[in-house]
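Exam review. A common question shows you a sequence with its structure tokens and asks you to describe the fold in words. Practice with the pair below. Do the first one on your own.
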Amino acid sequence: MIRQRLHAGLVLAAAQPQVLVGRGERRLGQPDFELRFVSDGMLRLLRCSREEITVRYGNNWKNIVHPDDLAFTVAHLDEQRKIQPEYRLSYRIQRADGSSCWVMESSRLTVNADGIPEYVPMHLTLF
């Protein structure tokens, strides 16, 4: 069921123009998926304030992903990271107001100034 919904989301994304609405950063190898940066666009997408990123979501990407999509999304991310340095993935997020929406995530592997691998930038595109 989730795979069908993700496929439907990819088909929809391909058919509609995409507009960048958010950006965040996650460090590779951190199982908690802590958000290190959140753009104003991502705050608008989530319909929340910077404080709510910490209070409501625990500054954690896993808490933003819709619970019904989380297991598949994390497994797919792990799979993609093993085979390529860049990836795209569609999934639903849960907004602060209780609604959900589909996003397309695009990320690439980089190495930060401390020599630590990170997937950045994490662009979320609403579709």
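Now try the second one, then compare your answer with the model answer below.
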Amino acid sequence: MKKFILATMVLILGVAFYPSFLQNSSTFRVLNRKALAPHVYAGTGFMVDYKGYTFGITAAHVCRRTDELEADNGRKLKIIVIDPMDDLCIFDVGSPKFPKYRISGQELKLGQKVTQIGYPLGKSYTTETGRILELTGISFIEVEPYFYSDRFICNPNAIYVPKKDKCITPHMHFIARINTVEGNSGGPVVNSAGNIVGIVSASGKTKAGAILGVFTPVSSLVPLLDAVVSYKEKLKKK
């Protein structure tokens, strides 16, 4: 029996993150104007440097029902790929000259300190540091189904629930004792060196009511980045 049990699991909106150790535009607000039109769905985007390319990263639920996001300055950001099962989205940011985050190559450990950085509940940016409580948790989250031909379908590992018009899919994650609330989704989670170890996905609660952060591990992001890099390299050879 796990010591900490998620009593609730809710996907949360995200807003811009400006890390204290990276006072630049490596992290920025992204807007989805189609998902909840006429309302605007706000999330967090951040840039990573990977194998000579720069990519924008956020959570898949920030990118739902649209093929592009919009930055704070109005620039359109075309979505490259969405992985709803791991709640990840990669989008195009061009070739900016700002410093970018780097992906950590170190394994996460129980008890390790990690930091979530963001604008929870519309406040000025805050950093929340906590210790990892669980490394290999599996939760079940709701994601948008795909419309294929004349019907909605889910990815092979998910189940479609018609009444909710949602897919229920297993989500690998790690959990830390961090106060993750509305305004944190899609943002980076970093180690003490400032390198990416995870992406904010959701929040949960213990039986006692303590709020926990639920994060997609960077190990889930790497294969997705590798696939995009491979595709870009093939295009160069044509």
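Model answer, second protein: Residues 123 and 183 are 9 Å apart (CA to CA). The chain has one helix and 16 strands. Full marks require stating both points clearly.
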